[in-house]
Design goal:
CATH topology of the largest domain: Pnp Oxidase, Chain A
Number of helices: 6
CATH superfamily of the largest domain: Electron Transport, Fmn-binding Protein, Chain A
Structural class: alpha+beta
CATH architecture of the largest domain: Roll
Number of strands: 7
Length: about 210
């Protein structure tokens, strides 16, 4: 937390936000959350497991003048690494070379990570500061998923200030295509197995008669 913040959730609940909460009737409920310490500031086992299982998230940054930008980041499960209780990192792959995220972070380190798990209807919001590391090949190599076909260009380190979860309402349930394909293959194999057993039983019945 900064000197101007009393609670970890103040990273998002500015005076203007709290004023709207008071006007709309939710300030009292969030004040109780603040009295119990606000949002979590360290990575626990649940968040670590959630991040280890993700293959996609959105990274939000803003330019010095406040112009926001959201960039998708993806990779195989486990591409987001936990370095310590407040730091996560990932290899940043070469893409369309617009470098909007990197440019924004060069003048404004404040960033936000939004992770959505559609299959289980879960979402996690993470506030903090990020920086680009493009002069540490050993770190970059350690973060690169083995066998993944992408060209790593740099590392993004994200220092967590606070994180919170959301309720599942209004989240549509969507499943990974690979998981659906695996489930369908398993189903088809089981159907084939049952059909073979049925055919065998019919054959035995016919022979007996």
């Amino acid at each position: 937390m900064t000197d101007t913040q009393t609670y970890s959730s103040d990273v998002a609940f500015s005076p203007a936000v709290k004023a709207v909460q008071a006007r709309k009737g939710s300030r009292e409920a969030y004040a109780r959350v603040e009295q119990h310490g606000g949002w979590r500031t360290e990575i626990d086992e649940n968040l670590a497991a959630f991040l280890a299982d993700t293959n996609s998230f959105y990274l939000a940054t803003a330019a010095h003048d406040g112009q926001p930008y959201i960039q998708h980041r993806g990779g195989p499960k486990g591409f987001v690494k936990v370095l310590d209780k407040q730091t996560i990192a990932f290899a940043d792959y070469s893409g369309n070379r617009q470098y909007i995220t990197q440019g924004n972070l060069s003048e404004n380190p404040k960033a936000h990570i939004f992770v959505m798990d559609y299959a289980h209807r879960r979402r996690v919001k993470v506030w903090g500061e990020a920086r680009v590391v493009d002069d540490d090949p050993a770190l970059l190599a350690s973060l690169m998923p083995r066998g993944y076909r992408a060209r790593p260009e740099q590392v993004i380190l994200f220092k967590i200030a606070a994180w919170d979860t959301n309720c599942p309402q209004h989240i549509p349930q969507k499943l990974e295509a690979a998981d659906v394909a695996t489930a369908l293959a398993s189903r088809d194999a089981r159907i084939a197995e049952l059909e073979a057993e049925l055919a065998k039983l019919k054959g035995e019945g016919a022979a007996a008669s």
